[in-house]
């Protein structure tokens, strides 16, 4: 089989996301977390995201022959980090968003202090989960993956990208290169690293790790461009974000710099390059990853 229909792809994605969901629903239990904090953490963690990052990590590891169950704690840790970033991103001091995925954002459903702690709690629990992966896989690969993940999520990656985003807001002379650097850190690093950690935990050799790293960086960049396009054309409306709200807040976006058509072309070019990196791999997981790359451009929400 060399192609996968959108229907088949969506069905595999749903099954994979459901297995992540199941693991996430119990992973914070028996941790002695005070009830209100646990409720706040689970409110966001179990609020129905696409689970894109953990699914990428699982599929890449499986492509190198490692069972998904073995990587599940690590993959779930990535979702915890993603969930923390969304909680903190919504806070009044950051994007000040009242809604996330169509529901009150964490600080609206609870309170600001609890939301800050819920984010801190999810970030820290992620490290517990990542180290727990060493029960299933060689400790040296887990350590390498953990180091890679911490670098991608931290101040030289996602957190630093958030700082650049704030620095750029309201500036009208931001270059395309600056915008790309900011997004490679803010959104791209975690997506790229989800793939990269799947390869490391899967025991991939250096060349294959590099291929997967490039695949991840390219789909991460494409994901952000499409996110900007969706915001511009309005499909985020149902998620509770007013259409074009980023522009109103003085944010720099791909459509505002390049227009919709050129932005789409840029995203498609990145996806084509990502797919090329997978040419040396075969099997159902490689096919799933190729289809996922194209889905990033084709998605409507
Ligand atoms: C506050 C430390 C800190 C970091 C925030 C990633 C990030 C940095 C903020 C997220 C803001 C945002 C909406 C960025 C656009 C791209 C993006 C990451 C969208 C959300 O990811 P999805 O679509 O979310 O995978 P779901 O809801 O499916 O989990």
UniProtKB/TrEMBL annotation:
InterPro entries: Isoprenoid_synthase_dom_sf, Polyprenyl_synt, Polyprenyl_synt_CS, Prenyl_diphosphate_synthase
Keywords: Isoprene biosynthesis, Magnesium, Metal-binding, Transferase
GO molecular function: transferase activity
A Pfam family reported for this protein in Swiss-Prot or TrEMBL: polyprenyl_synt
Superkingdom classification of source: Bacteria
EC number: 2.5.1.-
Family, similarity comment: Belongs to the FPP/GGPP synthase family.
Protein name: Polyprenyl synthetase family protein
Source organism of the structure: Halodesulfovibrio aestuarii
Classification lineage: Bacteria, Pseudomonadati, Thermodesulfobacteriota, Desulfovibrionia, Desulfovibrionales
